[in-house]
Amino acid sequence: MERTTSTPTARGWRVNGMVFVLALVGIGLGATAVLYRWRASQLGDDFRRTRAEMPVDPSLRLERWIEYGAPLIHQRLVQLRYGPDQRWLLTHTIAVERNSPAQEVWGVDFSGLAPSVVRREGLDVVISLPRPERLGQGAIGGDMARNVPNFAPGSTVDAEARARGIVEWSIEKLVTALHRDIPQARIVVRFGEERVGDG
Fold first, then answer.
1. pLDDT per residue over 184-196, tens digit each?
2. Which of 2, 59, 89, 131 is least enclosed by beta carbons within 10 angstroms?
3. pTM over cut 0.90
């Protein structure tokens, strides 16, 4: 019986799967880092150019600030609405028992809120909102109901001060940014001025 011997065939070059995956990840991360650095550099240049082009006069500077600040303030105010169907900034309720059907619901009606509620008067950024009022009667649903303070009937409640405090809390970071950019400027919240409709 004849013995046959097989000659080994030449094996092609093979890449280890794990090495290949790591190489792809490295290339991806490297490309992302380069793109990020390039884009960050561009954004930094744009920011420095915009700052350099800002007017020196505080009132003109404030006019430019409002172009960017008014939509941000409006967005913060929209986020204060109690819910999609209850478009109010709730200040408090009045009832013997919290969240009862007999409770009075007080707050500011934000259903007509538009970015135009923000305007400039001299070096003041004025936020004009409707006066707080009795919005209705009955229980308010949702988890946020426990965050709305309840007062006993006959209590004296400064709804305007409560609403102002909530609004000022919501725009605190914008107030800080304004003072940093234009130290002479301030943000003022006013109630009961002429109502501006949705826009």
1. 999 999 998 754 4
2. 2
3. no
